[in-house]
C-alpha cells in the first residue's frame, strides 16, 4: 500500500498547523490558524477543528506532533511557554482519541525542524544533521540516521542553552552566558541598543539586519557577536556528536549573508579537529520544516 498517509501537527505560540503528508514527504492538504487564547479546552477545540478540516476523508496511519517546549515526551504532556492555557496538557491522549487509536508521537519543535529539513529540505541526502532555529529564542535538533536524537528526557540538542561565555549575561533558562543570550533576535537588538544603536520607530531583528546590510557598524557588531556564539555552539555540538551538516532557519536567519557570513567565518576559526573541518552550514529551505518533521516522526513509528 503506497497510498498511506500520516498527519503532522505543529504547535507554536503564534500558530497551530496541521497537514496530511504522503510517505515520501509530499503535503497533500494543510491548514493553519493563529494560536487561540483561552483555557485548555478552548485551545484544544480549535486544534480539533483544524485537524478535522485538514483530515477530510483521509485516514492517516499515524500522527506526529511537534510542539514548543517544555514537554514530557513519555507522558505526552505539553506546557508551551507561549501558550498559557496549556500546562501539563495531555495533548497526546486528547489527539489519540480523535484518530481511532493510531500511533501518536510527540517531539520537541526544534527536533521536528531538523527532521523536516533532513527529509525534504536543505539536509536531503545526508545521514546526520544539526538543525537550528534562530528567532526569539534558539532551538535545535539533531538527526542521526533519519531519527531525532532524543536523549534521556527527549530534549537533546538544546544548543540555545549551551554556555559559551563564562562571564555572560543571565539567560531566561536560569543559567548565564548561553548561546541564546547572544544569538536570539531580541538579545542582538538589545546588545546593539546598549552600544548606542538608535533605530527608527520599529525595533526588531529585521530592522537590525537591514541596518547591518546598509553598513551600520553597531548592527554588524551585534550580528557578529550572535554569529560567534552560534558558531561556538555549532562546533561544540559537531565535536561532540561527530556530524558535518548544519541547517539554520527561523526569522533571524532571513538576514541571509548578514548572519551566515560571520557564522561561516567563526565556524572555520573554531573547527580545528580533522573530523569537523569540513562543516557545512546552510540556510533552511522549507517554510514548514516543523510540520514536515512532525509528519516524519509519525512515519518513523510505522517503520521502527
Ligand atoms: Zn539559557
Automatic annotation (TrEMBL):
Species in which this protein is naturally found: Kribbella deserti
Name of protein: ROK family protein
Family to which this protein belongs: Belongs to the ROK (NagC/XylR) family.
SUPFAM superfamilies for this protein: Actin-like ATPase domain (SSF53067)
Lineage: Bacteria, Bacillati, Actinomycetota, Actinomycetes, Propionibacteriales
